[in-house]
Amino acid sequence: MTAPQTANAVQLPPVPQTLQERAIAIAEEYEISTTTFNNLIFSESSWDPTKDNGADRGLLQINRTYHPEVSDECAFDPECAMRWSAQRIKDGYLYEWTPANCYSFVKTLVKVPLMRSIIPNSAPSVGVVAIFQYKVPHLAYVEKLTENGFWVKEANYEPAKITRRFIKWDDPRLKGFYAPPNQLASN
Description:
28% of the residues lie in helices and 20% in strands. By secondary structure, the chain is an alpha+beta fold. The strands form two sheets. Strands 6-5-4-3-7 form a five-stranded antiparallel sheet. It has a two-stranded antiparallel sheet with strand order 1-2. Strand 5 (149-155) and strand 6 (162-168) form a beta hairpin.
């Protein structure tokens, strides 16, 4: 038998959530991947809402130049930053974060043209870009060649993560390799 409810029952304050718990709750509310959202936050700031590198700020490293509509107050407020970012992701802008975008990541390592202009033009070598075709085109930076394949460093093969993996030479999704023109001249 349960105790009868009274009109003057004491309301307890809500239990505070960790940032990770809030991120999961917000991702679920905005109907985006909880894993992607958590990995993105970890990759961007290691869960430090005070992180500021001059251009990017806060938990999700919201860029000052590209997003002047986001105040410092919002960028450094975990709740506001997570909600703003979750909406951007829901609206299709996950690619704005480098760990979530293979092109932006490769562009930090190799001078590449627009994504649509990247076509195979090179033999495999360290420092070139491997081109794959999954559901969408995918780029990865070649770090090491072996007899059986090669090692790449890439962003977003696993959602919102920068990872290394081994690729066999006969991978059917591998479409070729790209090197910038100045790198082709030296190979």
